[in-house]
Amino acid sequence: MAATSRHAKYQALPTSEDIDHVHSEANADTPVSIRDPPPSAPLDRQINFIYFILGCAMLLPWNALINATPFFLSRLLGSPLRPVFSSYQSSSFNVTAVLFQAYYTLTSKQASNSRRVSLSIITLTGFLFLIFLSTFIQINPALFFSFVLFSSICMSAAGACLSTAIFAGAALLGRSYMQAMVSGQAAVGVVVSVVQLISSAISVWDATPEDIATFIAYDGAAEGVAEEQAAQIFFGVSVLFMASTLATHIWLTRQPLYKSTVGLMDMHKPQGSIEDTEERHGFASGVSPSDSWSDVLRVLNANLIFMFSIAYTFIVTLAVFPSITVTVLPTNPNLHPLLFVSTHFLAFNAGDLLGRYICAFPRLIVWSARRILAMSLLRTLFIPIVLLCNVQRPTAMIPPVISSDFLYMLIVLVIGITNGYGNATCFLAASSIEHNFRLKGYEDVDIAATLSGFSIVVGLAIGSLVSFGVRAAI
């Protein structure tokens, strides 16, 4: 959603609450100046669709890894690393994302966006192919654990590079291309979940009640045949998708519209050290690096309530999803756990997409910072609610308070909806000149959007670490 907020402008009148708090929460002595954004590039539907595909590629690594959790767990059967695998995997991925997201953002003006996209896609395709190959061989659980964590770290670093480069390119082209990119981000989770669900259904199609009972008796893994078949289909499709994405991006870089915008900027990247670059950039723009950092700190301080809200939204989500939710088994003995887990991924991602889509209607957006904070804090209730479901505990089995499989899927759906809605609402409200009087003008919009995006990554990383505590409480 960071992409859409840069150019999105809603003309609705500010609420009375916003007006009441403008003097208490913003710098009332400084007049708010509104400057229109630069005009967008002409719409090319083919290029627009490619940015939709690139948006899908941005979040495919994360979705691929979390949806393949049943397969990873099946390879760790009998290992003490199995219960904490999801927490370690999500933590390593998101902590790496925080570090590399910051690095690639700071060095974005010294590198070619086109080259970064190509190298990132090649790297991601390579690691997805390695994981695909791992579905055909058996290795030591500890070695497999290390392999998956190493792959997660490398894919996170490549994904951070890919996202910053794609965002920059879409921003240069204009709002329509940015919206297409964000739509791809939301849609990929649903598509990945559907592919995983279909592959899981194919792999357990002939499973008998005895097979399901054996699957559960062996800690949800049995011999791992069903998980292997599902993962082979899933990662095979993912590799083909990333390879086709690389081909479409190469075609994109040869188009006149791309060459005259993103390609033109790549050709004029300054050479030399980062320090020299910053000095020349500051001299040319009339703004020194210290002034830029001062603006970032000013916007961060004025909009801290938004940044905390968006980070906390993802802290709650990652505290239980997927590290805890993948341990919830169906209470219906005739429902295969592998199919149940795949369905729960689809429920969350469909909810996340729906929550983002709701924000396409300005009347349904909450603009008040205090109300957004309240909604974010209320999501804390999802942690104990999930623990009341049929969570598999390492000690004595405790009968679940929430024993309905349908109700559990509804809970996961609501978690997804509130996650997507909270994400989109924070982005739009924080970067809206019309509704956020903490911004001095349009020049603050890009800073607010960037800070919001970084807050998401921070929230994901902290939430992954919090999942260790939630796991210990089971």
Mind explaining what this structure looks like?
The chain is mainly alpha-helical and 474 residues long. The chain is 71% helix and 0% strand. It is built from 19 helices and no strands. Helix 5 runs parallel beside helix 7 (141-173), helix 14 (304-320) runs parallel beside helix 16 (369-378) and helix 18 runs antiparallel to helix 19 (445-473). It is globular and about 65 Å long. Residues 1-40 and 271-290 have low confidence and may be disordered.
Quick structural summary:
Helices cover 71% and strands 0% of the residues.
List its traits:
474 residues; mainly alpha; 71% helix; globular; disordered N terminus
Can you tell me the residue ranges where pLDDT is under 50 for at least 5 consecutive residues? 1-40, 271-290
- From the spread of the alpha carbons, the general shape counts as globular
- Total E-strand runs: 0
User: What's the tally of helices?
Assistant: 19
Distance between the termini: 34 Å
User: Helix fraction?
Assistant: over 70%
Largest sheet: none
- Class by helix and strand content? mainly alpha
User: What is the residue-averaged pLDDT?
Assistant: 78
Radius of gyration: 23 Å
Strand content: under 5%
The sequence of SSEs as H and E is HHHHHHHHHHHHHHHHHHH
Layout of secondary structure:
Layout: H1 2-7, H2 16-25, H3 45-67, H4 69-74, H5 85-106, H6 113-134, H7 141-173, H8 175-203, H9 209-217, H10 225-252, H11 256-267, H12 274-285, H13 289-302, H14 304-320, H15 337-358, H16 369-378, H17 382-387, H18 405-430, H19 445-473
Helix pairs in contact: 3-7, 3-8, 3-10, 5-7, 5-19, 6-7, 6-10, 7-8, 8-10, 8-15, 14-16, 14-18, 14-19, 15-18, 16-18, 18-19
